[in-house]
Amino acid sequence: MSTREIAGKTVDFDEEGFMSNPAEWDKDIAVELAKEIGIELNGDHWKVIEFSRSDFEEKGEAPGLRRITKAGGVPTKVLYKLFPKGPAKKIALVSGLGKPHGCI
User: Fold this and answer.
1) For residues 88 and 12, what is the distance between their CA atoms, to the nearest angstrom?
2) Which residues are marked as active site?
3) Dihedral through CA 99, CA 67, CA 81, CA 8, nearest 10?
4) Burial 65-85 (b: 16+ CB within 10 A, else e)
5) What whole-number distance in Å separates Cα of residue 83 and Cα of residue 51?
6) Gap between the terminal Cα atoms of the chain
7) Is residue 2 within a helix (H) or strand (E), and if so which, with residue range?
8) Helix orientation angle between 87-94 and 27-36, rounded to the nearest 10 degrees
9) N or C: the chain end with fewer CB closer than 10 Å?
10) Nearest to 13 by CA among 101, 93, 84
């Protein structure tokens, strides 16, 4: 585990770069995390992020790609456009959640 400063806050991250405590997350952190992976967030990104955080609150784990497409109603092609090359991991990262199960 490591601690670093992001968006003016000190936040704990695991060895893979995911936030250790989703309760520390806020929108300013999301914007900075997205910038770090080359994504500028827009309204469509926020819909996916808000779904993911809500689903996490309900299920206790970060949703995978299939769950986001089925329960969140976002087509796979759209997810790959918004979060290229590994959308489930990138969505979880920007949403302040741990790595989704099933992701390598």
Assistant:
1) 21
2) 103
3) -40
4) bebbbeebebeeeebeebbee
5) 15
6) 19
7) strand 2-6
8) 140
9) C
10) 93
